[in-house]
Amino acid sequence: MNRSPDLRVTLGPLEMKNPVMTASGTFGYGCEFESLVDLNLLGGIVVKGLSLKPMAGNPVPRIAETPAGMLNAIGLANIGVNEFIEKKLPWLRGIDTSVIVNIYGHSTDEYEDLAKAFKGVEGVAALEVNISCPNVEMGGMVFGKDPALSARVTERVVKNTDKPVIVKLTPNVTDIGALARAVEESGADIISLINTLTGMAIDIERRRPKLANVSGGLSGPAIKPVALYQVWQAVNSVKIPVIGIGGIIDYRDALEFLIAGAKAVQVGTANFVNPRATMDIIEGLKGYCIEKGIDDINRIIGSLNI
Amino acid sequence: MLRVNEGIDPLLRRPFSICGTTDGEIALILYKIAGHGTEILSGKKAGEKLSVMGPLGQGFTLPGQNEKAVLVAGGIGIAPLYFLACALKDNQMEFMSGFDTSGNIISPEKIAGRSINISIATDDGSEGYSGMVTGLLDEYLDKNIYEKDSIIIYACGPSAMLKKVSSIAACREIPCQVSMEALMACGLGACQGCAVKVFPQNDLTLYRHVCKDGPVFPAHIIDWGAI
Fold first, then answer.
1. What's the CATH architecture for A9-57+77-200+218-299?
2. Which residues of chain A have pLDDT under 50?
């Protein structure tokens, strides 16, 4: 069979041409990769997390390389929601992909205001609610570690938006299933996970943390097995679709998440190493389907044999 | 941005300056073994292929026709300045380069073949000027008569050296461009890992990115207190 397989996936109210998206914070606002990637091929672009007001981010050093991974403590440096809508979104509308806006608030009120800011705004396929950033003092993971607070934030966003709502979960919890269920019950349409794992690294010459922020979020291939297990747990805990994230470098990694039951995947740190990682993964998925005689990618999703 | 290995060890690409080109292609990159990545790089054999993404970011702004260029290098920071020197055909130029000791002097002109007169400073006095290259810069500026608007300093080297060069330039009101180094992941301005703190200009931005806005910056916009 040589016919191109059908890669379209439907995540509740969100339809995508294929299951491969970029992860927030690793792909800027899309334009940074324009000269290297045919953005029209991507299933979705999740832009850098946006706050109500611009944020400068954390002091430097902000990144440190670790075995098969990296730590970052960028601190959600971003241009703010108004400048995004005014300056970045018009350009993104011209791209044939699902543009997903990642939002981050310091309080439940701010999450609500961010949701409202995108009400009626065209060219935004969904909101991804970041309640899982480990690198900011207020908000972020403070909400995401607590099922009750996560539920409250989700509820406020859902009530104030006309877009599908994705809630991005932190892996830094004891019971990911409970968190996933809390978010589902509060009306989230989709769950995405995992955000980075909190970690640190020390410079032994200076006996100082390698990151100015002391701790940061670990990403890259090093976290993939942890991510995969948490995604699988989430898939088994909720009925809403799950997006798998964590250490995906190539199409084989993406397949593991799809087989575990993720309806789509996000590619993060790999974009730094190979800017065309997302395109390569889409091609790899096609090739895999053709080789296995599979005409629809949905036949792979959740096909894990235990 | 250069990938020293396929695979995930090390994971990230490494930023390098271009030291020389031949017919528009990168012909020379200089490095010193500073960690795992450069150690792997040192094991590469002639003819091996590496993945390179670039050129990226903003380079030096060339001097005006009658401006004199003073190039100040520290250690491996000589790489982009040698490339700059090769591009300065019609300008008067003074090139000085500092190293810790004579045994560690890097001479790109000997590799690239284009002879450029470079004054050497060594921290231990084993060759050339005895002391830091910033001392040699001070001495040069003391001894030579120049018009403030007819001279420009270009510097590349360790942060502490750039900070000193920037301060010398500021005191003497000489324009100065510095090529900075930072830990870097994407090279495209997307990850915002390689931020450098600046004095906000018109756009009120507190951080700029070495990969995209730099690596060359006007020295006076950098907040050296944060470095």
1. Alpha-Beta Barrel (3.20)
2. 1
